Structure of Phosphate ABC transporter ATP-binding protein:
Amino acid sequence: MDMHAIEFVDVSLRVGEDTLLRKVDGRVPKGRIVALIGPSGSGKSTLLSMCNLMRTPTSGEVYVEGREVRTWPVRELRQKVAMVFQSPTMFPGTVADNLSFGLRLHGLSLSNPAELLEDVGLDPSLLDKRAEDLSGGQKQRVALGRTLAMQPEILLLDEVTSALDVHAKLEVERTILSLHESRGTSMLWVTHDLAQARRIADIIFFMDAGELVEVRDAAAFFNEPQSAPARRFLETMREGDEVQ
Ligand SMILES: Nc1ncnc2c1ncn2[C@@H]1O[C@H](COP(=O)(O)OP(=O)(O)OP(=O)(O)O)[C@@H](O)[C@H]1O
């Protein structure tokens, strides 16, 4: 039995002259939340993209539930490992249409859209509204609901609250945490918000210049980062006003 949702083994990615990822080794244990943090351009989004075959390594392997990603049928993999982005795209049509979008691509329909909407903290009366008329926070919840309709076991979250105001950010964050509790979904969550990383993470992955420099228990990391780049990063972020 494999206890890891995702496992990176010596993963490198080179594009032309550039090395985007350098010998990344790390594990996302099943049912845990890993916050992926680090300076802009350090390779966080690139690392996420290796988990569902949006990109493939130049060398090394990525395992999802013990199976190397390149041996998964791509549709099956993307059902199991779903991604939510910073700015949710709403398709023309109603909220209900948007919730069932992924399932329809697989020739399936959504059995209980009202319940799904409640799961992401929205009122079922919104089902018939035009999705494009929703607020940013509501759109992000619909995007989450659309992803959850596929019943993924692993969620890749790429700065999913950074386009939201503080109130909507906390609400969406709480929604994700309660889904995590009820469904046990494993998560690899990129965030620029250190206060958020402290609130949500079991484990921290700290990246710098394409390397996964620290993989640590979250409390231990914030108490005492071990590497010089992590210490510098925490100091810079604490001086900035991004963190409240
Ligand atoms: N196709 C590509 N070819 C060359 N360089 C690329 C390509 N895609 C991304 N990069 C570079 O790879 C580096 C890592 O990018 P990535 O988006 O993964 O960083 P990030 O840590 O997610 O940054 P941010 O926090 O700003 O979103 C950046 O320097 C980026 O410019």
User: Anything to note?
Assistant: The chain has one domain: 4-87+152-239. The chain is about 35% helix and 25% strand. The CA atoms of residues 203 and 218 lie 5 Å apart. The chain has a mean pLDDT of 93.
